[in-house]
Amino acid sequence: MPQERLTDCGVTLLRVSLGVMYLAHSILLKLFTFGLAGTAGYFESIGLPGLLAYVTFAAEAVGGAMLVLGIYARWVALVLIPALLGAIIWAHGANGWVFTAPGGGWEYPLYLIVLSVAQFLLGDGSYALIRPRARR
Question: 66, 18 in Cβ contact below 8 A?
């Protein structure tokens, strides 16, 4: 298999795994584990508006699905970064480096930011449903 094809498959693997992570954090964690009301309560407990929990849930769920399907993936990855920055600043930043620390640390959201930037830089990969048109 030519290197270009291997690279394209690697970009696709990054895109799909990043999308699955966003879906897991929105649907499995925020919806099924804590519930949206519980997530909103947590947001309020750290000084954020409860409504932001619903916006975050929707962004992660829709954005995760778009990444998995390859719908404007590079731009979706970029748009989701502020949610991760917010997680570092308001939820995990003071808890230390390790995500297994009480309240979770900040290395995992930072790692996801790096992956999201890489996705933006690399593009959509193979099997993307909708890609932006290339400029001529």
Answer: no
Say whether pLDDT at 136 is over 50: no
For residue 133, is it within any domain? no
The boundaries of the domain holding residue 118 are: 3-122
Count of structural domains, the chain? 1
**What digits encode the pLDDT tens for the residues 52-86?**
999 999 999 999 999 999 999 999 999 999 999 99
**12-21, 22-31, 61-70, 103-112: lowest mean pLDDT where?**
103-112
Q: What does the alpha-carbon distance between residue 22 and residue 29 come to, in Å, rounded to a whole number? A: 10
User: What's the confidence (pLDDT) of residue 85?
Assistant: 96
127 domain residue, yes or no = no
